[in-house]
C-alpha cells in the first residue's frame, strides 16, 4: 500500500508522570507539503517533534499514533526506529554548537549515515558527502570533512546538520528552530538552503519556529499550538490573513510588519498580556481563557477544533472579514 | 598539541618543585630533634650537638634543602644513618613489590570498572543496573584493610588457594611472586574499581543526555550503537581525569595493603624509617613516590590530549 502522506499524527499525547505537555494533537503532512508549527515557548512544539522521532528522554510517555513509512512510530522498537531515523525521516535541531559529536571528524559523521542507510562503500560515501556539502554552499568541502566540529562556525555546523538530514533523501524533515542560535545574516542563508533542498527533494517539512514571517515565506500550512493543543490550523493564506483564534490574532499582532512599525523606529507591537499557564495548572476548559478578550462562560469547557477548512478550537472565533489571497 | 604538552610539562615541573619544598618542610617540622632520637635516650648534649653538626642539621634550612635537592637531582638520595644503606638501594629493592602491586591494581580496576559502569548506565532504569550501582556503592564504603582481610580469609585461609601474606622474591621463584601478588592486587583493584565504576556510570549517563548523542540517534544509531560509537569515547574524557585522582588513591591503598599482606614494599620501608627518624631516607623516598604518581598523571594528561581533538587540534 502506497501512502500519500509523509506523516500522520493521531491524537498524540506526551506526558511526564502527571504533567501532560502535549494534549492530543492530530495533523497530516502530505509528501512534498510544508507545515509550520508556531506557538509561544512551552506550547509543546519540541516535545511533539521529539515524540515523532522517538527521541524523548527517558521517563516521557506517549499515547495516540504517529504513522510514517508504514509503521506506528510510537510503538515501534528502538531498533526499528533506527532504520527510519536519518533515512526516511530526519531532524535538524536548534543548537548546532552542541549537536555534533565533538570527538569525531565531520566527514565521518556524514559518511556514517550514508554507509549505514544506503550501504554504499567508503569511497562512494565520501563523494556523496562532498556533493552534499557543496550543495550547502560550504566552501572547500574536503577540508570541512577533515575538521572537527569545534573548528567550524555555528552557521557551518548547521549547514552540516542539514546536509546530514538530507543525505538519504528522507520523506520527512523536522526542523526545530533551526536558525534561532545563528546570526541574523546567517539565518536567511540557512533557511534558503533548507527551502531549496526540501523543494528539490519533495520532502514533507515540519518547521518549528517563533518567526511567523519565515513560516509565511516557506510553508503552505500552519498549525498554531497553545498549551499543548493545536488551537488553529489551515493554509498560510487563510490563517495569516484572517486569524480566527484570538491567540493567533495576538501572535500575529505581536510580530513586526510594515503596518505597525514607523520610521522613527518606534513600534506599535501589541504583546499578548499574561503568560502561558504552567503544565501543572492547565485549566480544564480553554487554556487561553485567562488572557482572552473574548472569553465567556462557555470557555470553561474545552473547545474542539471545528470542521472548517481553516479549523479553530474556540467558542467565540473571530469572524472571517475578507477572503484570503 | 605542542603547546599543550609544553604547558603540561611546565606544570609537572612546578608541581614537583612545590611538593619537594612541602615534603622537606613537613618532615623537618614533624621530626623533633633528629639527632637526639637517632642517638637514643642515654646520649649527652655534646654527643647530640656533634651528630647534628655532622649531619648538617645545624645549618640554615634553605641551605639544607638546596643540598638535598642538588644531591637528589644528581641521583644521590642519601643514606640511612644506622644501617648505612643507600636510600636508592632501599627503593630499588622494594619497587619490584610496590610497582606491580599498584599498577596491577589500577589496571585491574579499569578492566573491571569500565564494562561494569557501562552496564550499570545502560540498564540504569532496570533492577540489574541498580544492583551494580549498589554494589559499587558498597565497595566504596568498605575500607581497604577490611576488604584485604576478607579476601585473604576466603581465598587464603578457607579455600587455601593463595598465600595470605609474605613475599617470594622474583629472582627466587617468579611464580611464587605472582601468587603472593594476586590477592593484594585484587584487593586494591576491587576497591578502586568501585569508585571508578560509579564514575563510569555517571559519565556515560551524562554523555547519553548530550545533544550530539541525540543527533547520532536521529541519524539512525540505535541506543546501543550510539552508546558504543559515540557515548563511550566521549565519556572517556571525564574518566581520564578521574584516573588521575585514582592514581593518588592507589598509593594510599598500597600502603594499607602492604601492611595487611605483610609485603616488603616501599610503604612499609617508609613507615619503618619514619619510626627510626631516618629523615633523609624518608624525604627522598616520599619524593620518589610523588614523582611516580605525578608521572602517571602526566601520562594520563597527555592521553587526554590525544583523545580530545579540541585540545589536540586548534581552531
Ligand atoms: N525535561 C522536562 N521536564 C519537565 N518539563 C519539561 C521538560 N521538557 C519540557 N518540559 C515542559 O513541557 C512543556 C513543553 O515543552 P517544549 O520544549 O515542547 O516547548 P516548546 O513549545 O518547544 O517551547 P520553546 O519555544 O521554548 O522551544 C513546557 O511547559 C516545558 O516546561
Ligand atoms: S474559547 Fe473562549 S477563551 Fe478560548 S480563545 Fe476562544 S473565546 Fe477565548
Ligand atoms: Mg522548543
Automatic annotation (TrEMBL), chain A:
UniProt entry tagged with the keyword Nucleotide-binding: yes
One GO biological process term: peptide transport
Keywords: ATP-binding, Cell membrane, Membrane, Nucleotide-binding, Transport
Keyword Transferase carried by entry: no
Subcellular location: Cell membrane
Name of one Pfam family that matches: oligo_HPY
PROSITE patterns assigned to the protein according to its UniProt record, in alphabetical order: ABC_TRANSPORTER_1 (PS00211), ABC_TRANSPORTER_2 (PS50893)
GO molecular function, one term: ATP binding
Domain ABC transporter: residue ranges: 7-252
Cellular component annotations (GO), alphabetically ordered: plasma membrane
Topology in membrane: Peripheral membrane protein
Main location: membrane
Stored NCBIfam families: oligo_HPY
PANTHER family given in the database record: DIPEPTIDE TRANSPORT ATP-BINDING PROTEIN DPPD (PTHR43297:SF2), OLIGOPEPTIDE TRANSPORT ATP-BINDING PROTEIN APPD (PTHR43297)
Name under which the protein is recorded: Unannotated protein
Origin organism lineage: unclassified sequences, metagenomes, ecological metagenomes
Automatic annotation (TrEMBL), chain B:
Localization of this protein: Cell membrane
Transmembrane segments: 99-119, 131-161, 181-199, 237-261, 281-307
PROSITE patterns named in the record: ABC_TM1
Topology term for the membrane: Multi-pass membrane protein
Protein name: Unannotated protein
Alphabetic keyword roster: Cell membrane, Membrane, Transmembrane, Transmembrane helix, Transport
GO cellular component assignments: plasma membrane
ABC transmembrane type-1 domain mapped to chain residues: 95-300
GO molecular function: dipeptide transmembrane transporter activity
Protein species of origin: freshwater metagenome
Amino acid at each position: 500500500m502506497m501512502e500519500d502522506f509523509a506523516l500522520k499524527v493521531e491524537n498524540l499525547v506526551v506526558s511526564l508522570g502527571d504533567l501532560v505537555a502535549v494534549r492530543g494533537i492530530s495533523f497530516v503532512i502530505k509528501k512534498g507539503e510544508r507545515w509550520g508549527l508556531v506557538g509561544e515557548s512551552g506550547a509543546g512544539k519540541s516535545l511533539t517533534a521529539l515524540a515523532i522521532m522517538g527521541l524523548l528522554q527517558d521517563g516521557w510517555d506517549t499515547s495516540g499514533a504517529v504513522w510514517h513509512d508504514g509503521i506506528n512510530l510510537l510503538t515501534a522498537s528502538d531498533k526499528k526506529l533506527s532504520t527510519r531515523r536519518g533515512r526516511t525521516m530526519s531532524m535538524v535541531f536548534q543548537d548546532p554548537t552542541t549537536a555534533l559529536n565533538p570527538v569525531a571528524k565531520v566527514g565521518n559523521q556524514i559518511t556514517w549515515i550514508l554507509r549505514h542507510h544506503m550501504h554504499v562503500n567508503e569511497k562512494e560515501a565520501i563523494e556523496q558527502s562532498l556533493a552534499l556539502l557543496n550543495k550547502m554552499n560550504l566552501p572547500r568541502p574536503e577540508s570541512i570533512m577533515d575538521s572537527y566540529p569545534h573548528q567550524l562556525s555555528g552557521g557551518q555546523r548547521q549547514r552540516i546538520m542539514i546536509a546530514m538530514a538530507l543525505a538519504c533523501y528522507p520523506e520527512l524533515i523536522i526542523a526545530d528552530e533551526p536558525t534561532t542560535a545563528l546570526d541574523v545574516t546567517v539565518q536567511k542563508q540557512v533557511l534558503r538552503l533548507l527551502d531549496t533542498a526540501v523543494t528539490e527533494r519533495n520532502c514533507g517539512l515540519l518547521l518549528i519556529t517563533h518567526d511567523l514571517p519565515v513560516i509565511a515565506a516557506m510553508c503552505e500550512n500552519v498549525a498554531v499550538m497553545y498549551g499543548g493543543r493545536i488551537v488553529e490550523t489551515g493554509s498560510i493564506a487563510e490563517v495569516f490573513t484572517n486569524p480566527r483564534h484570538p491567540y493567533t490574532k495576538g501572535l500575529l499582532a505581536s510580530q513586526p510588519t510594515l503596518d505597525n512599525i514607523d520610521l522613527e523606529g518606534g513600534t506599535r507591537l501589541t504583546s499578548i498580556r499574561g503568560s502561558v499557564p504552567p503544565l501543572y495548572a492547565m485549566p480544564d476548559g480553554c487554556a487561553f481563557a485567562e488572557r482572552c478578550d473574548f472569553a465567556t462562560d462557555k470557555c470553561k469547557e474545552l473547545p474542539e477544533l471545528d470542521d472548517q477548512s481553516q479549523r479553530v478550537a474556540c467558542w467565540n472565533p473571530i469572524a472571517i472579514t475578507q477572503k484570503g489571497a | 598539541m605542542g603547546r599543550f604538552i609544553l604547558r603540561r610539562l611546565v606544570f609537572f615541573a612546578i608541581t614537583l618543585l612545590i611538593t619537594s619544598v612541602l615534603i622537606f618542610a613537613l618532615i623537618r617540622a614533624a621530626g623533633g630533634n633528629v639527632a637526639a632520637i637517632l642517638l637514643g635516650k642515654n646520649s649527652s648534649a655534646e654527643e647530640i650537638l656533634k651528630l647534628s653538626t655532622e649531619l648538617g642539621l645545624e645549618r640554615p634550612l634553605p641551605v639544607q634543602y638546596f643540598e638535598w635537592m642538588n644531591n637528589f637531582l644528581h641521583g644521590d638520595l642519601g643514606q640511612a644513618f644506622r644501617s648505612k644503606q643507600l636510600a636508592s638501594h632501599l627503593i630499588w629493592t622494594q619497587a619490584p613489590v610496590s610497582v606491580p602491586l599498584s599498577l596491577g591494581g589500577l589496571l585491574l580496576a579499569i578492566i573491571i570498572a569500565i564494562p561494569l559502569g557501562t552496564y550499570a548506565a545502560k540498564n540504569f532504569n532496570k533492577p540489574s543496573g541498580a544492583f551494580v550501582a549498589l554494589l559499587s556503592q558498597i565497595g566504596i564504603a568498605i575500607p581497604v584493610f577490611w576488604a584485604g582481610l576478607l579476601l585473604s580469609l576466603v581465598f587464603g585461609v578457607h579455600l587455601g588457594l593463595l598465600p595470605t601474606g609474605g613475599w617470594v622474591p622474583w629472582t627466587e621463584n617468579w611464580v611464587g611472586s605472582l601468587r603472593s601478588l594476586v590477592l593484594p592486587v585484587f584487593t586494591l583493584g576491587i576497591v578502586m574499581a568501585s569508585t571508578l565504576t560509579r564514575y563510569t556510570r555517571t559519565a556515560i549517563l551524562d554523555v547519553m543526555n548530550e545533544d550530539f548523542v541525540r543527533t547520532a540517534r536521529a541519524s539512525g544509531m540505535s541506543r546501543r550503537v550510539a552508546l558504543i560509537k559515540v557515548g563511550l569515547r566521549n565519556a572517556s574524557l571525564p574518566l581520564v581525569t578521574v584516573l588521575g585522582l585514582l592514581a593518588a588513591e592507589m598509593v594510599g591503598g598500597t600502603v594499607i595493603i602492604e601492611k595487611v599482606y605483610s609485603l616488603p614494599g616501599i610503604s612499609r620501608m617508609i613507615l619503618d624509617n619514619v619510626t627510626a627518624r631516618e629523615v633523609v631516607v624518608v624525604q627522598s623516598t616520599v619524593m620518589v613516590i610523588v614523582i611516580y604518581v605525578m608521572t602517571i598523571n602526566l601520562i594520563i594528561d597527555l592521553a587526554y590530549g590525544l583523545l580530545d581533538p579540541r585540545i589536540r587540534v586548534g581552531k
